[in-house]
Amino acid sequence: MMKLISFAIAIILSIVATYSQSLKGTVYDKETNESISYATVILKDDKNEFLEGVTTNDNGDYVLSYSEGEYTIEVSFMGYKTYSSLIKIDKESVLNINLDRETTTLDEVVVTAEETTIKQLIDKKVIHVGKDLLSSGGDATTVLSQLSEVQADVNGNISLRGSSNVNVLINGKPSPLSTAEVLQQIAAEDISKIEVITSPSAKYQASGLTGIINIITKKKVKKGISLTTSTNVNSLEGHGVRSNLTYGRSQTNYKFGVSYDNRIFENENTQSREGVQPYEQINDYKFDGKIYKINGGIDWFPNKQNEFSVGIDYTDNGHSLNNQSIITQNDIVTNQNRYATHSHITLNTNGNYRYNFKNEEDFLEFDVQLSNNTNVLKSDFMPNIAVLDNATDNDVFIVNTVLDF
Known about the structure:
- The chain is mainly beta.
- It folds into three domains: 7-99, Immunoglobulins (Immunoglobulin-like, Sandwich); 117-217, Ferric Hydroxamate Uptake Protein, Chain A, domain 1 (Beta Complex), CATH 2.170.130; 224-404.
- The chain is 8% helix and 56% strand.
- It has four helices and 24 strands.
- Strands 17-18-19-20-21-22-23-24 form an eight-stranded antiparallel sheet, with no helix packed on it. A six-stranded mixed sheet has the order 9-10-15-16-13-14, with no helix packed on it. Strands 1, 4, 7 and 8 form a four-stranded mixed sheet that branches.
- The longest helix is centred in the N-terminal third of the chain and has 18 residues, at 2-19.
- It is elongated, with a radius of gyration of 40 Å.
């Protein structure tokens, strides 16, 4: 029995002795000979697989306890080259390690701050958009909302001096998209500068406009195909759908858009007067409009100096108005109904040529716009009480030619 116990103790001591071998040492900076704290020291086997790892203490010392054998030791620390070597652990082995510093040669770095600058000209204010605005990311609406000259909300509604009667141009050209849609399609980083024109000249056909915002992009041709589609509906069964397609090649932009809107509104109101001659009028108003639009255009940029653009826009806007009124005056009740149908057909065509001089602020531009409007307005009153039925039919044809320098 004693022999068996002695044998077991010998086995245990042998195992303990086998796994009580250690490797210890200190990690130093090779140049200064100073110890390196918190360096990583690991053991790997012959298959380069991790076995054991420690970090050096405040004095740069480490201790690895593992069984006898041959291993690979790796020591690493930020700013130093990784040390790797084959070692043999046998009883208590000591290995001090010197690490070489990592030397990196940097080229000269020039940091240029691109800040937003504003240039006031006679007819417009030019805002060169810098990194301080572009860093916010987002789209053109995000950039415009940061300009003190412009008021813009998240829905793409734009106003100048408190008025929303503003035209938005892209690179000096109108877009077939709505203002909100076109602003959402322009990434902030694509904007070079923004021109705010608060007193637009005749070339913009700006009668009644508060101003014009012209967004100049870094690249006038955006390659690839872009298709946007949106729909809307209201509780009165009004609905609409619109789709726009753009196709950009190396020197050419193609644009095409179609839309249909069925706008339905209802309103009820009462007007009354008390006194010697009391009066009350109850109105029930219904509006039903159908708007069809189709537009297209081509922009061609053969080189940096020359730009050509043509565009066409057709709108068929027809709507009906039904107003039923019950009028009570001096205890006499009268029914008065008005039924009106309006038709507005508009065809706009545009041609534009621009020559850009070396100074980007100087250019020669020739613009031709043709506009043809046909309006048919008809109203029927039932019964005809002191009011005659009326109908108006008129055609308006406008030619606008502008040479601007």
